[in-house]
Amino acid sequence: MVDRAKMVNKALDEAVPQKYPDTLYESMRYSLLAGGKRVRPALCLAACELVGGDVTAALPAACAMEMVHTMSLIHDDLPSMDNDDFRRGRPTNHKVYGEDIAILSGDALLTFAFEHIARATKGVSADRVLRVIIELGRASGAEGLVAGQVVDIQSENKSVGLDVLKYIHIHKTAALLEASVVCGAIAGGADEATIEKLRKYSRNIGLAFQVIDDILDVTQTTEQLGKTAAKDLAVNKTTYPKLLGLEKSKEVADQLILEAIQQLDGFDAAKAAPLVALAKYIGYRQN
Amino acid sequence: MVDRAKMVNKALDEAVPQKYPDTLYESMRYSLLAGGKRVRPALCLAACELVGGDVTAALPAACAMEMVHTMSLIHDDLPSMDNDDFRRGRPTNHKVYGEDIAILSGDALLTFAFEHIARATKGVSADRVLRVIIELGRASGAEGLVAGQVVDIQSENKSVGLDVLKYIHIHKTAALLEASVVCGAIAGGADEATIEKLRKYSRNIGLAFQVIDDILDVTQTTEQLGKTAAKDLAVNKTTYPKLLGLEKSKEVADQLILEAIQQLDGFDAAKAAPLVALAKYIGYRQN
Predict the structure, then answer these.
(1) Which residues cross the membrane (chains A, B) (predicted)?
(2) For chain A, what are the domain ranges?
(3) Selection from B34, B29, B6, B33 nearest residue B18 by Cα
(4) Cβ neighbours of residue A118 under 8 Å, at least 6 residues apart?
(5) 8 A C-beta contact, residue B185 and residue B49
């Protein structure tokens, strides 16, 4: 995973070089190259290789996942949204560049995600590249990430049930993790049955990812997380630990990870190892 | 042009139907269906037909242009940007739905523009659809619209020269008008030489569009414009009238329109008539 993160960081650095207007590109690069864990790109590349594709076929899509993810963090952190001052251990984008530039650099990263897939993907049929774009669009917009964020905002300071909480998690977090895996598989040349198997895997780890996030918000410090801890409690947000308690939440996450790994049963064990490892990483991560 | 606007309005209404989460889709539809003049879609469809394509081939791209344009208006109007209260004769998006929803519905429209082209374009080769996506991406992001907006913001309350003003206009306004024409031509099956001829046409009308915008800001009332008039003066913005005077600015716009129309010389006059009419409309519009 460390090697993969390096590969992705290099590709992101080259995809978004410093240019005029300076402030815009600095702001984009500030958040994009802030050294996240690159979980989404890692999933994308691993899915591509699992289905027999060359890793380079999925590299532009992998970078695009990180661009969209970064955009969502920049916009979510804005004062009119979650109003966060720290992210990945550093001041948030708008704290450094101002709200206007933060909004615009998010817009630019979102735009470039689609352009980059269309422009930089090589060795994949144009039909498949279009499918990748459709998957990413669905995961990022009003049927995915944005929808999740809207319902999340509207649920603050309200007590919501498990159905709404699940809706938020599936849309706000799981959708892009799902797209990462599915787009990697499409770029790698997977058939429909394989794509759907991997879709199930990714939905499970996506939901687990956010359950763990809820847990870590309670159990970890701001330093450990690199972002403000106990934030959910502070804004009285409904979370898995709040609804189910810590122990039961951990059980839910474990079960989701277990079922995700079961989806990989039909694959060659050696080839599936990276996706198994990523599922476990997501299930047992500490930040 | 009225018929075309109707066709586009219907297509936009169907492309973004009202769904859950209600507020998000209401906010998207509030601005998207606010009855703009649909200049970009009209250009896109006319370019497609001029090169011999069926109008339906360019309809998804035409709608996408309007989605990106609408997103840029929603985000530009935000308090941290131009802080505008009125647009198209109605309160701006954030005035009705709040800043958070306005940012998110802009994000959703931007995302959906790309998804819609990839998903809904029929009868066009996948390679050409990817080219359309690349053109739209370049026009909308850090090399286009967003770059123009950043330099525009940074130039407020500063006196800038004609070179910077031209940079702003070309990126903030002309880029998307150019993409509208070029994407229509690509979807319509145009060869490279034709695409480049139409690119020159569109660059000229794009620049003229913004020169006229600068002029109208001085000469028209808020009621006539449907948005705040004399805004440029209020924020001490450098404009064509400020740099060159009103008369000379009108001459510049006239010359740009003339040269745009000259690019259409080689085409069948009857077929080129809509693009000639659109150039004249842009050159002589009153709001």
Answers:
(1) none
(2) 2-284
(3) B29
(4) A129, A133, B130, B131, B133, B134, B137
(5) no
**Cα A156 from Cα B90, distance rounded (Å):** 29
SS3 of A234, please? helix
A-contacting residues in B 148-177 (Cβ below 8 Å): 149-151, 153-154
Contact residues, A window 70-99, toward B, CB-based 8 Å cutoff: 71, 75, 78, 80-81, 98-99
A86-87 and A90-91 beta bridge pairing? antiparallel
pLDDT tens-digit series, residues B26-59: 999 999 999 888 999 999 999 999 999 999 999 9
How many angstroms separate the CA of residue A1 from the nearest CA in chain B? 29
In this complex, the residue of A107, A130, A140 whose CB is nearest that of residue B130 is A130
| Gap between the Cα atoms of B187 and A195, Å rounded | 30
How large is the ipTM?
0.95
Burial (Cβ within 10 Å: 0-12, 13-18, ≥19) of residue A60: buried
**pLDDT value at residue A68:** 98
How far apart are the CA of B262 and the nearest CA of chain A, in angstroms? 32
Answer yes or no: are the C-beta atoms of B114 and A114 closer than 8 Å.
yes
Say how far apart CA B112 and CA B106 lie, in whole Å. Answer: 10
